[in-house]
Amino acid sequence: MTQTSITAESKLRKSQESQQLFQQDHTCDKYDYLISVACGAIGGLIDIFLVGAPGKSVLGKWTDQQTDQAVKKFAKMVGWKPRDSQKDNVASAIGFLEKKYRVNYDQRHTKDVDDLFNMSAKNHHMKSLSHAPDIVGLFFSLLNQFTSTSSFMADGKIITIKTETFELQGGNFIAKLFCGIANWFGHIMSDIAGSSGTRGNSGRGTGVVMPFYELFQFCTFGKFNVGKDKQDLATIATRAFQEGYDFRFGLATAIPVIITDLTIRLIWSLRRYFQFQKPLKECIPTKKHADLRVMLLCGYGTLCVMDGMDAGIRSGGNFLNFFMRLNLIAWFRFVTLVFKEVFIRIGIADPLQKQIEAYKKINEALLVYLHELEQIDLVQFKKETSEYQQVITLFSTVKTEEDLNVALLNTFERMGYNKPWENDFDSHMSNKNATLTFD
Fold first, then answer.
1. In angstroms, rounded to a whole number, what is the distance separating the alpha carbons of residues 417 and 167?
2. Phi–psi pair at 438, nearest 5 degrees
3. Side-chain half-sphere of 15: how many Cα atoms within 13 Å?
4. Taking the mean position of all CA atoms in its chain, how far away is CA 218?
5. Is 94 in contact with 68 (CB distance < 8 Å)?
6. What is d(CA 191, CA 183) in angstroms, rounded to the nearest whole number?
7. What pLDDT shows up at residue 434?
8. The whole model's pTM is what?
9. What gap in Å lies between CA 208 and CA 323, rounded to an integer?
C-alpha cells in the first residue's frame, strides 16, 4: 500500500470518527448537574459581591484601570510622547487621541443637532451610532465620514444630519476606506475611558456603549417604575448608560460569565479524561457534546437566577436600579444557549450541521487529491508523455505489417523494455519448450 493511500484512508477515518462523535447522544449524571450549578453559583457570587452596579463595583474599578492602561499604550503606539510628569496621565493620552482622530460626527448637545432631539454630553456616545464599538458603529462611521453626515438614534428612529465637509486622507477609495476604519477605531479609543476634560478634573467620564447596547434605543415600549415616574425601556437604558453602564463596566460583568464558562468546560474535560478514560481528542469541549451544552445551560441559568434575585431585592422596586444591577452579558449568553439548544432539539440545526459535515468531507477529499498531485514527478511525466507522443506519431505512418513489426521492435529497444521472447520471434515460437516472459 502506498503512502498516498495510507494518508487518504487516515483522513477519511478521522472524518468518520468526527461525524460519529457529533452524533453520539450524551446524557448528564448527577455530578454534572452539581458541578454546573456550583460553577454557576460561584459566578453568581462574584457577580453579586464584586460586580454589583456601576459606581459601586470592585471589579468595575479594576476594569476602569485596565482600560486607562490600554488607552495610554495605544496613544504611545500612535505617537503620544508625554513629558515625564504626564506619562501616567490618562487625560493627556485622551487629549492626544482626540486631536489625532477628529471626526465630523462628534456633536454633543441638542443645539449641535438643530434641536431635532434632546442630547447631552453624557449620552451623545450612545445616541451617535458611529460611536458604537461594533459592526453597527463601523458602518455608520464610514457612512458619515464619506458623506459628511452624522447619524443618531432618538425616539426609536434614526436621524441623519448634514455636517461640515469632511475629507478622508488617501488617493483612492481603498486608501480612504482604510483611513476611515483607522479613524473610527482611534476615535473610539479616545472616548472609551471618558473625555480628556472630565478625566483631567478627576472624574470618571462617560465612555462608549457595550457592543450593540445602542440598539436598546429601539425599545420604546413598556412603562416601568422609576421613582414616581414611568419610563420606557429605551429611556431606562440611556439613563443607565449615563450612570456608568458603559463598555468599561461591561468588561466587569463579563468576568463572572467567563469564569462560569471556563470552569464548567475545564471540569467536564478533566472528568472525561481521568474518570471515563476517554481519548484526549474526545475531551475537547465543543458544542458537539450534548451533556456539555446542558451543563452550560444549568451553569448560566444559576448565574442569571442569582443575578436577577439580587437585582430585584436591591432595586427596591426602582426599575432603573434593577436594570443597572442586571448582568446583561450573562443574560444574553443564557438566552443564546437556550435558543441554540431548542434549534438542535427540534432538528433545525441538524440539516445545517450535515451540510457543514458534507463540506468538511469534500474539503478533506480535495486535500487528499492535492496530496496525490504533489507526489507526481512533473519532469518524468513530461518525458513519458513525450515518448508516447513519438510512438503514436510513428505508428500513424506505418503502412505494412513488416513496417509495424520493425517499429515495435525499435520502440521496445529505444524505451528500454525487455522483449518477452529471445532472439527471433518466429524461431522462439516454433520451440515448444520456450515461454513468453513479461517483465
1. 76
2. -105, 120
3. 19
4. 26
5. no
6. 12
7. 74
8. 0.76
9. 18
Place of cell 485622551: 94
Sequence letter at residue 39: C
Cβ(295)–Cβ(261) under 8 Å? no
* Placement of cell 484512508 in the chain: 9
CB of 333 closer than 8 Å to CB of 264: no
Return d(Cα 236, Cα 232) in angstroms, integer. 6
Average pLDDT for 109-131: 95
Q: How far apart are CA 183 and CA 187, in angstroms?
A: 6
Give, for 157, the enclosing helix (H) or strand (E): strand 157-162
- Distance from C-alpha of 401 to C-alpha of 178, rounded to nearest angstrom: 75
Pairing of strands 157-162, 224-226: unpaired
pLDDT, tens only, 159-185: 999 998 888 888 899 999 999 999 999
Answer whether residue 218 shows pLDDT above 60.
Answer: yes
Q: What is the pLDDT of residue 19?
A: 45
Q: What is the rounded CA–CA span in Å between residue 152 and residue 318?
A: 28
Q: Are 116 and 161 in contact (CB under 8 A)?
A: yes
Task: List the chain domain ranges.
Answer: 7-54+246-359, 58-242, 378-430
In 3D space, the residue among 192, 189, 119 whose CA is nearest the CA of residue 150 turns out to be: 119
Write the DSSP symbol of residue 423.
S
Q: Beta strands 157-162 and 229-231: pairing type?
A: unpaired
Which tens digits make up the pLDDT trace of 342-389? 888 887 766 666 666 677 777 777 878 777 777 777 777 777 777 777
